[in-house]
Every structure is written in C-alpha cells, then in structure tokens.
C-alpha cells in the first residue's frame, strides 16, 4: 500500500509579473483539484514577498502524483511560465508520516 504524498512547489516571478503568475497558478490549481487522487491543493502567496508563491498539494499515492506530472494542463501552464519565472521552481516531495 502506498502512502499519501505531500508536495510543496515553490515559484518566484520576475518583478511586476506576480499578478500574471498568480493567474496562471490559480488556473493550474483549479484544474489539478479535479484530478484523480488529488486530496488537497492550495496556493499560498508570501506576505513579505508578493513575487513568491507555494503550492501545497496532497496526493493519494505516488502514482497519482506521477499522473499529475503528465497532465495536459500542467504542460500548458509550463509554456505560459517561460518568461514569468525569475528562476526554476523547486518541488519538494514528502511522505506523510501520520
């Protein structure tokens, strides 16, 4: 039996591109919430740095998360992010202990 996963994905926009990044990430979040195996998906914007965003995702299994990484809406979002991100995003994957 596979364990649930918690995923943190961090994004940093270029200066004055944070509203555009937020719009793309909200669309991605809404579509991802409909995916099989998604049990939670939130978007956070850092109070002290409005160009910094973090997704907190929860997936039923590693297989569900892997399927998410192949979803067409994720590829569409990646194309839109090319000239918006200040640096590559960071994705951290954790097993839920309890």
With helices defined by DSSP (H or I, 4 residues minimum), what is the helix count? Answer: 3
What's the overall geometry?
A: globular
Q: Main sheet: which strands, in order across? A: 2-3-1-4
CATH architecture: 2-Layer Sandwich
Strand-and-helix sequence, N→C?
EHEEHHE
Content-based structural category: alpha+beta
Mean pLDDT: 93
* Oligomeric assembly: single chain
Low-confidence segments, given as residue ranges, are: none
- The CATH class designation is Alpha Beta
The total of beta strands comes to: 4
The third-level CATH topology is: Alpha-Beta Plaits
- Total domain count: 1
Alpha carbon gyration radius? 13 Å
Strand content: 25-35%
Main sheet makeup: 4 strands, antiparallel
Tell me roughly what share of residues is in helical segments.
25-40%
